[in-house]
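Students often ask why we bother encoding 3D structure as a string. The short answer is that it lets us treat folding as translation between two languages. Here is a chain of 233 residues written in the first language.
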Amino acid sequence: MTEKHLSSQFDSDLNGVSSQLMEMGGLVETQIQRAIAALANFSTALAEEVVETEEKVDAMEVAIDRALTSVVARRQPAARDLRLLLAISKITTNLERTGDEAHKIAWRVKSIVASGEARKMPIGDLRVASDLAAGLIHRALDAFARLDVAAAMSILKEDDLIDCEFKGFTRKLVTYMMEDPRTISSSLDLLFIAKAVERIGDHAKNVAEFIIYIVNGTDVRHSSLTRIESLVR
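And here it is in the second language, the structure alphabet:
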């Protein structure tokens, strides 16, 4: 078997694993969209669809990990190829955890609906943060598909917007509970939903950091935005 053929097979393996990752990402995106729709419409049916998808997302994580282990064992990659495989493993974990956050949102929606307080809850402000988080995950997956460092940097810069929305919503929710203590239980559900939305944004940020790692070979986790910008120039 020639070296060229070996390289071609390796490329095929890498493309296969990357395709599995993108498929998983698409499924997680669907989970997020349904979770947000469930919240907007207080729909237990949509919430249930999110819950039911969880097992499939978990199974895809296991399948990708198995494929990665096989590629490393058979091909013994080095340099950028190894970085790519390691990053895919980390990105897969972040996608699975993103699915977990969508799952949490769905369960909290079901709780709010069951409480009978659904129509009284102030969810309008949550929609802004939810749409931002969903958008960041979509863009992170797109940036991975293209290994686009500029797009990854854009995601890192926008993550703070979700954090600001979360803090603002939390303050409003505390005021809401003080004015009407009867809504405390449902308000706490909303608080957990808001935290889940914030965490989705964090996972999108993590994916963006791993894209920079793949392309530049630099681990930028826990680094300031200023330092990351200087490293990718």
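Translate back mentally: The chain has a mean pLDDT of 89. Keep this in mind for the problem set.
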